[in-house]
Amino acid sequence: MDSAVDRYTGQIVDGEQLWYIDPVDKEGYICRGCGVMVNPVSFEAHHKVRPHFKELPSKPHESWCDVEGEEKLVAKARKERVTTQVGFPGSFPSKLQLVDEREKVAIPGAPIGGKGASSGGSSSGTATGKTHTQWTAHTIRPICRTYINFPKDRDLPLSVPGADGNNYDEVIRKLVSQDIVVYPKQHIFVAPLSWSKPKDIPGKIIVELSYGFWANKKLLSPYRLVIDSSSWSAAKKNYVLTELEVSRKEAKERADAGKKSEKSWVFFVGQQESTNPSDFVVSDHRLICCLTGELGNG
What is the pLDDT of residues 120-178, one digit of tens each? Predict the structure, then answer.
């Protein structure tokens, strides 16, 4: 499972967020579908697989839980449109809301969950395998994962504060690959991660993308993310650096295996520099994520 519900806060937690959480509560997460306890795994630095959640053999999913159904739906959606006249046959994030992190502190002894748990603290209903919901994301990651997983269904509604557009196809914008372009409106932007290692300098992380201005088959001026980490804790900074390094290695592994269409994609919300439009400044770790695979076309 890519994500689970924090049983103390009721919020959906993506596996990659376990890189940032210290310590990880092995009993703190429940299935988004049926509410049974699930096990967070592969979150230690030495693991090559991204962090995720697994079913506990002693506590299997409820018979009506549709977690496996979601995986089958994604496999189908990568090939064809799954939205019908009846609607979209699954749950998805339709809104981004950055919640004050102080509101996320777990309160010992006050778990949220149980059978029929909510699919998130801001869900519009329950995810029981029979009732499908739109829910509110608190980082851009689940939104970006939905964008990749459902390339033919990008007309699903999406609201991101400050971003132009009303659905996935409008809100998320791929950067122009062969030139530097000024974007007058805000979006969740996406471009492939360069194989170059990010530069970690005091107060900043500089990340090169593989799109930008090309001449004679050479990338002369790449788009860059200038991540302002000056006010971040060491944990936040390490979280972002870890994901960038894991994603960089994933991209190289895919290329070595001949899977050229599978890249590590960087999604971000940033302010484009007016004097140097190749640079985007990002200051919130919740507004950047990397996902590896085929971006696909709608």
Answer: 334 333 333 334 579 899 999 999 999 999 999 999 999 999 999 999 999 999 999 99
CA-CA-CA-CA dihedral for 255, 260, 265, 271, to nearest 10: 110
pLDDT digits (tens, 9 = 90+) for 31-79: 887 888 988 887 776 666 778 888 888 888 887 787 777 888 999 999 9
Residue 24, Cβ density class (10 Å: 0-12 exposed, 13-18 middle, ≥19 buried): middle
- Quick one: pLDDT at residue 163? 96
Tokens of 202: 């005091």
How much is the pLDDT for 143? 97
Residue 297, Cβ density class (10 Å: 0-12 exposed, 13-18 middle, ≥19 buried): exposed
pLDDT at 48: 62
For residues 278 and 212, is the Cβ–Cβ distance under 8 A?
Answer: yes
Q: What whole-number distance in Å separates Cα of residue 168 and Cα of residue 165?
A: 8
CA 24 to CA 6: how far, in whole Å?
11
Amino acid found at 6 = D
Place of tokens 């995810």: 127
